[in-house]
Fold each of these.
Amino acid sequence: MAIGKKQFITLLVIVLSSVKTITSQAADLGPTTQDNWNYPGPASIGEREVLFYDQDSVSIPTYFLDTTTPANIYESDPTCKSTNDSKCSLESFMFNAILPFCNNEADVNCISGMGAIDSNGNRIPGNFVQNLPKVAQNQFQGNPEWKLPSGGSGELFTIPGVNNSAGNSYFVSASVRGKGGKSLKPIVTHTSFDISITPVSIRKENYDCSNPDNCTNGGFSKFTDPNGKQVWGIFGAKWANDDKTSVEYSGSEGLSLHRTGFPTGYGFYANVRLNFSPSGWMHGRLLDPNLSIDLNKGIYNLKFEGTPVRVPIAFATAKWSSLSPTLKKSYQDGSWKCKVKNCITEFSRVGVFLDYAGDDLNNVQITETPYPSGIDGIDELNQWLPLIKNTASAVLTNWSVRTLSTRESTGMNKCFQDKDRIMGLVTTNSTEYSAGPPEFDKKNGVLNYKVASPHFEPNRYPFKGTYNLLMRNEVAKCLYGFKNAAVRADISVINEKGQTSVATTTFSQDQNWISLKAANFEFSSPTVKVKLKQK
């Protein structure tokens, strides 16, 4: 992909543009939240900088790209306005569609509603205000017959009486990603689905649009690469990186949205209406999630609800020369070759920013963000925790749900798989967590889920973990070979020393779903164990 250095807007940059600094000096010992925390980088020459943050819960802009001739995709405009666009052959294509708001009951592939749930269970519907931007940089018209959603921009809502720290505005983004070809059957394959709710403040900006390129919204557009060549690539406007709390922006309208904190005492919900179903396994940043799926005449009404969770960020900077031999070895024994720009270590990550001053690692500037899921990220965090005194840099609130990526679902037990239905949802507030659904230990009949976070919040208060597992009854029958679906569960949390940790656990079951919860356990790197038994 062609990339402009200052305009690069991969998930890493989106992560770094969605947080702002605040120093926590809590007067009273207890949980605190720093939703304005700021990324304090970049690193200096000779430093390795690492940010553990859930960038997988952040969506990317809408696009619909003709990939029929991959070698030419960045030489000319690859974007398509619809499936009837005359410049697009669409023998091969890929897309990311941020879903529009449903204007009426007949609309499909859209957000049908959102709102809050108070402590008494009363639902407070949100009111749709507008899309932001009103027109996306690469907005396109979908094709329901192909099951291709229309792609636009996220939605701004207000929820009467449900005030966050900046008002009652909330930004909702639901996106579907996929690929296909007009000669294939099916024409479209959906590869991911995600949805998030973010409380926001709204700012009027004074962007300098004397150069129109300065006010182009995020998406695919033409720019000049470092070699002076005009190419197409995905990027964001120059001013998008100026404020690290930015959630969304519109250069043409002079508006920007900025992250703020959720109000306490409320759950939140979001509903979507689709003519296809997300499939397989899902991960979420929710407490006590509830998932409802209603199928009627080929239309799926999906309802996601739950309470936002507090998720720790861990940020560290250190001279290469000061790192422990173990941590150095972990990096050096990977495919680390700093003569090439795509520097990858044995640890998984979303992106690495580099600056070179020779091949000596003492003279290399590195900023990286490990993936939030997977054993590699867990191991990397555990090795950095002593350097940050096992203390989080900040704790942010989050409400989001997504399907697993290909990276996370590779090798997944067949009992968790289904190409046509959602089979389960696992949620946690941990900084790092196992990739995919829980791992099934067939010998001992145990579902294992490993998590890792700093032990302390910024004010040195012990951070308390949460874990929810929601799965279809068929999954339990498949894993354990049960004759019927009625089960009971033993739930425990085992710390890194092999000791049982104190935790609050609950279990319930209805005709469709098994629901389990472990909460109030402490970190650094425990494993949640669940053993189901036939009643």
Note: Residues 487 and 534 are 5 Å apart (CA to CA).
Amino acid sequence: MSEPESKNAMKKRLKAEAAAKKKAEKEAAKKAKEASEPAKAKKFVAGGDDDLDPTQYYSNRVNAIKKMEKSGLNPYPHKFHVSHRVPDFITEFANLEDGARDESKTVTVAGRINSVRGQGKLYFYDLKGDGEFVQIMSDLKTYESEEGFGEIHRSLKRGDIIGCTGFPGKSKTGQLSIFPTSMILLSPCLHMLPKKVGERDAITDQETRYRQRYLDLICNNDNRKIFEIRAKVISYIRRFLDERNFLEVETPSLCLLPGGATAKPFKTFHNDLSQEMFMRIAPELPLKKLIIGGLERVYEIGRNYRNEGIDLTHNPEFTTCEFYQAYADYEDLMQMTEEMVSGMVKQVCGSYVIQFSPKPGAPEVEVDFTPPFKRISMISGLEEVMKIKLPALDDPNCDKKLAAILKERNLECVPPHTTARLLDELVGEYLEDNIVNPTFITEHPEIMSPLAKYHRSKKFLTERFELFVAGRELCNAYTELNNPAVQRERFLEQAKFNADGDDEAMCLDESFVVALEHGLPPTGGWGLGIDRLTMFLSNKNNIKEVLLFPAMKPNLEEMAILAANKPKEDAVDLNAKKFPACPPTVFKLAGEDEDLGSEHGMKQLDAALVGNTFLKGGSPSAEDAKLFKQMEKMPREAVEWFGNVKGWWFSVAQFSEGVRGMWK
């Protein structure tokens, strides 16, 4: 049984109940009064909706644009005449006095709103155009109408692209401004843009910046400078070569054979020709054909494509400049390289000395491009640093000895362990990684340089150089090999490496050898990576920073789009395919007659070609010519059914019928 309530407790309770009742009555009276009176319009403040949820912001914006269109306004006009780019406006009117307006001149400027503030009769906008900013200071007195003033400022948001007509002038504090008589929305931004906070960029997430480069350029204005530097690099190279009587040319990006470099190519298929084709890995071979044709100084700035890894310095598609000069050698090219690269650095950066951070988070190093550049002969340089004598390049056990040296020093080389790959691993570890200032690594072994001319005085070496800066290759050049017989031997040697599993080895291009047989003059050839040079001059250690649209692994959203838009012909069930019908094609393999028109016979041929470029090993024979002639009658699909047979077919096909007829 509960105790009776005391008098004091009762008084407190009654008092509290009375106060609560009085408060409730007061609130009810207030609401009744508000309901009976017309609602007061909320005072408009520019930029006041930036704290909304992005989804709600987008919805509000879409509805506002629809409302504009219903009222007869066009938020996407076709044209707006611009009298001044923003940078030109700044240049022309920068010397106006503080507080002055030049109402004798009417200007029209367009750009994107970077920020907006103000209310009532005065609004301020920061307008961005061509990477520069100018203030718009809009007041009711200057504007063409009060109705138009209120309407335009209620409709504009941060990120919108607008046109502005008005007078140039400066605010009382000296801020160069446009005082508009009219403004127009040219294209609304429907999404809420990220904001810069203090010194921190508006967008710092790399995935977002690379996938949505347009958003990166809108919000992070300084990143525009990277691509301005890139444009200056290309412009400087083009001007440098044009002044030396070079002719700029264009060569095919789609090739029947991938040549001109040691790299794995991208494959594609030409439907009309029913032909497998490749994206070019380098323009070298067609450019040298032009030298043969009499265009004695040619260059090309363009894209190359290599089906290799993506990392800080590699992208599957990249931009290079290659030039070829008749009657020049690699010594001439080293001098030209020093002159071009050092001059470019001085012009773009204002000094030969730049700061560069080699890796993310690594401290900056000072790189001095003052000519002349240091030179290191590859083999003797390795021996000096490693303090050992490397095996002779003609030693039949050279591969095994080099592999043992790598194992002893805890270094790994990606298979296959060819001489070229093993040496490249040592060069990377002991020479390239220790270079800071521009340095030429010269005189590469022939085994690493199938298109370079043999050294005139050093056996098994070539007249070649690579320019390295801060551990990264920037340039590659050599005296060109112009002896067709030696070139054919080099190609066949590369084909053997390809058969051994080196998918970066070059294939045999008989058409190029035939071109050489018409006479290539003594020639120097040169190539430079535009992307990597831009990285140095903009102090970026990730190649994605200097590419507007770098290669990225598709995210889930992109994968869904790809799946939804996949062409029907790509969706064929490969497991359901059958070996095509072929006419009987009998050929003797290992002493036994095999019908290559059957899947079993073709499988036997594929097995016989394992590890071999041709039927009898690394060199072609009359047997290859005979078999090729028989198989020409078979469907192409059957010829390409098995990988080794397909590789053999393309190797033999590079030789003309006349050359095949001379095989023994």
Note: Residues 570-574 have pLDDT under 50 and may be disordered.
Amino acid sequence: MSTLRQQARSSRLRSDLLACGLIAMWAVIAFRLISVQGFGNVDSERAARRQHAFVEVLPSRPGDLYDRAGRLLATSARTESLAIDPSAIEEPARVAGLLASVLEFDEAALTARIVASHEKRFLWVKRRLDREEADAVRGLRLPPDVWHFRTEFERLYPQGSLAAHVLGSRDIDNHGRGGVEEGLEHLLVGQDGERTLLRDARGYVIDVDSTKTIEPQHGRSARLTIDSLLQMKVEERLSKLMEECQPLGACAVVLDPKTGEVLAMASRPEMPSVGVPPSGGSNGAPNSASPYPTSATVHLDEPPAGQSPAAEPDNANGWRNHAIASMFEPGSTFKPFIVAAAIDRGVVQPDEEFHCGHGAYRMGRRVLHDHHSYGQLSVTDILVKSSNIGMAKIGERLQNEGLFAAATAFGFGRQTGIELPGELPGQLHPFSEWTSYSTGSIPMGQEIATTPLQVAAAHAALANHGRYLTPHLLLQIEGDGVEKPAIIGRELVSKETADWLVTGPMTEVVTRGTGKKAQIPGYTVFGKTGTAQKLDPKTGGYSHSRHIGSFACGAPASDPKAIVLIAVDEPTAGPSTYGGIVAAPAAADILKMTLDYLGESPDRPEELEVKPKKRR
């Protein structure tokens, strides 16, 4: 029995020892697992990091921009940008030194950036490397898990600075900044794609998971209404005007009155060649318009009341597209719209005459004056001679209700809707704030602020037989199928009223009135001059020496093909600051360029015939 008991005891001991051994073995395995998973063995962690799947962004390419003739204005080129994984870098100073040696970086600064981002997986080193820089980085042979190139697209402008205020630009992240680049962002920018890659322990890509690949949807291209050749000539003429008159700024707008298409748009000073637009507005304009003082015009650059225009930095002035992002009192260029409304409402007859008080007319508590002593004037002569008193008497016929209706009908006080960010709506006070002063001020283009584009579009409506068309820059969207934008039009005044104004008074403004310097041999030109007084920061009232001269014109009067508007902010050189002197010659030159570009034959060819010389 004792032998049996000893054998049983021995068997249990062996079983216990075996169980203890198994327990110990499992304990070692468990400790090892905990060591790897819980305590983070450095070598295993790095190996795991190197051999994993990661997602790579496949960037979409922004669409191109073309002019109306198909000339390339903006395109995108594929480029490489360098990024690193700071968490995978064991020797930050060494990596920084190597990269700094080929990219001409500050080694200490790059080292500090890497150290500060040691817990991050991504850090940009340099965006958009050129080919030599990219090849030099490859030649460093850094560990593949430390660095990589990311494909991006860089925006290029083959025409240089041409139409810079119209086109705008794209920032480092390919976001539109100003111009149609921002205005048409929803069309030009596509949708990025992605793909999943698998790297081995050395950091090299070994496979692509095609089942998870999403192809990028590239942006659509757009054709604009501007013509680059005409745009170039307009910009050259505007630059010449800047040299001749030395103003604070100037702009030009060329419209097709029958379509609302912007054939050219230019602004000066020129846009700075480097940097990004200032914050607060894509076209250098503030996020919201400054409060508009009733008693004076707003400077084209819109400084706060009481601040000198010269206080605004020149580079900010250059970023601004004055055609849409600056406001001024339109002055006499506004008068034809009031006359059109008065005739259309039947309160004034085209052949009617008004007595202009020989240069002075009391209206309530104030006395209005003309530049000359006029007596009896017809409606035509009120426009030809630009009589403020005559316009005030027409305003009395319309009353404030009719004046407000005319101003709003012609599009003042709201944006035109052109495809450009930063467009200001102008300033038209609520009707409840109008007074008896408004009855005399509004008809002469005071107590209202407009953008140059608003004035050009309103004159285009008269040239288009009284029908207003929204000014626009997008001609068509290109891609799988050509798409053209819908253009909104509305009738403002009757065809008879509009045609009478264009072929009658506004033509005589050029033949015998304030716009004689806009005459073009062979063409019947119509137009209207404007000279707006600016705010005097010292007195808070109108300045007698600082003006904005403007001129709107078109041709041929019987069938207008183009409208041109020039606005010149505070000319400091030249014989005069009046619109008929400072703006009309440049407007006529641009109008002639446009007619030549359109292939429009002279409507008065007899003026071009060379008369034979008399023999002695």
Note: The two ends are 166 Å apart (CA to CA).
Amino acid sequence: MNLTQALNVALPEIPARLVAQRCPRLHPEVVHQEHIVDGRPVVRLYVPGVDAVFNLAPQTWQLVRFFKGQQTYEEVAESYFQETGNRVSLDELHDIADDLESIEFWYKTPQERNIASLMQSAEERRNTLKKKNQWGDLGFITFPAFNPDPFLVWLHGKISFIFTWWFTLLTFCAFAATLSIFVAHWGEVWRDTIQFFNFADKSWLDLAAFWGITLFLAAIHETAHGVTCRHFGGRVSSMGFALVYLTPAFYTDTTEGVVRCPPLERVLITVAGVWSELYLCTIATIVWWGTPPGTAVHDFAYVMVLMTGIATVLLNWNPLMKLDGYHILCDVLGILDLKETSTAYVSAWVKKHIWQLPVEVPYVPKRRRLGFAVYAIASGLYSYTVLYILARFVGNIFRNFNQEWSFVPEFATGAFIFRSRIRSLVNFMNFFYLDKKDRIWVWLRSRQSRWAFAAIVTFLLLPLWRESIAGRFSLEAADRAVIRTQVAGRITNVYVEEGQAVSKGAPVARLVNLALESKQSQTAAEFSRASAELNAAEFRHANTGLALTRRDLLAQQSSAVASQAAELELKSPITGVVTTPRVTDLAGSFVKDGTEVAEVADIRSMRVRIYVSEYDMHKYRPDANGRLNLDGTWGKLDAERIQVSPVSSQVPPGLVDVSKFKGMHPPTFYEMTLFVSNPDGRLKPGMVGTGRIYGAHRSLAGFAYEEIAAFLSRKVW
């Protein structure tokens, strides 16, 4: 007998060895219920302390029930045989125990968990910590706070009447009344809802009040989930604080309800959150509708309407986020982890069929494959969009302090948010390289690789792409004239209407001013008398100078009055088309001097003005040409000539999105005017589209070099 054998005989059993040899143990408080999934019976289990729901075949569950931790594998097999009459081998028992151990199904005491951790290698412990990292999924991060089950039992006893048929009928009637008020004020409610959730113009006090009300409503929302789960017999083990894409929220663990309850009751548990907020929305809507505007009660009720109405339904019942809508969709389809399952299927399918990697694609029934692909792509794009917006939001905050270096925290936030995706991408690239490296090295040493490399370099250096400057525009006539009254009067005749072509000097409208006409007649008579008096003075050779002065003065007055009288007939100063709508409605109305009567535009030549940032002005060349693309039409129009304003211009509202420059010093804009011929008159003032001015031809390598050089010159120099 050697020393090792002697020590094994003499020393007592080590606890770690006993744990390793002992039969695993089922959790004493496990919750289970048999369900029908895809026409097959499945036992669904909830193990307290494990963030997962397990689905086992009924035969497997019958066997797992005998794992009580105190028996050996032989005793478990014998107990199973005595109760069911079916034999099971020890190898099968070990395989089942090992498979369930790998997904942390078995119950372990604190001592057993410590021993199991000590028996792991350092690499295994690191991988375990990575799996348990609560910051791994920024879509939903939980911070458990307390066990709400005793409180929910007490609360359910107080408000159990809300689950009765008569209260449900009363609720539907109240919801119908609320809906009718919403329909009557739909334009106002929808517009104010969008404006209310626009945080661009809110102060810090507004944000504090908003988040205070939001957290209060979230607490009611999650309590409603818990009470409903308790009503249907499921315990609620935890409730606490959560971050949904880093947005503050609360959460309630209703996993036991998912296990115990049939599909309809699971849907009701999920709907209960929004249902409770609709209660508040109904009350707030009636208060808002019945109280006078401007009062504090009216304004607060309207805020509650905006926060518990449309926004709540759209946000919580969105199936692309792991909120109520997602869980409702999972319950309806009978798939508990739709996002993970569909994503795993699509990812494995792409790796196998697109990248030709040796991976196994999870089995999915044919009738579900297309739906899985659509949902995985849609939910993935939505999640990435939300995370990208979050990173941009952080960048916008820092732009208020330093717009030049705000990209650093923005990129850091993006790296933190997408770190798991970046890690997955690196692992995929490593896997792809290891699988294809032999063929890659063979191809790199071949002649074809040299030709491919030369083709790529040539493609990058060829000036195939043309620089361009683009901007939104609104068509307007190159020449237009506004016809205004020069004297006051009553319009008696309007000779034109909207869209009518007029020539230069054509009459547009006629005014009557009795006082002016009377004055014209009076000055004409006085001028005639003064002329006669001058003739008489010259005949008598007496007071000729005085008579001449009087006649000249009256001549000037008569000419001035005649000129004013001539202004009673309005004429077009240019050839064009009348663009003023309902110009004939002015007939019979009295207008003051300076009143606009009509506008005439010469639409034979049109012009557009686009506003170019100072950062894009270097792309303009004196010999540049421009093209216009009108919205809703095919083809493009060539500009005849381009004019550039020598000084910067103020951008009209709506043509440039200046909100993206918020928190920064907005760039200076220069006006570029493009003229386009319109001989057939098919272009009309007010048409909108996109104008583009083309510069020099550049290569992709030139583009990249220019952007890098511009970045370094702005941020480093």
Note: The chain has five domains: 16-131, 141-332, 337-445, 478-591, 603-715.
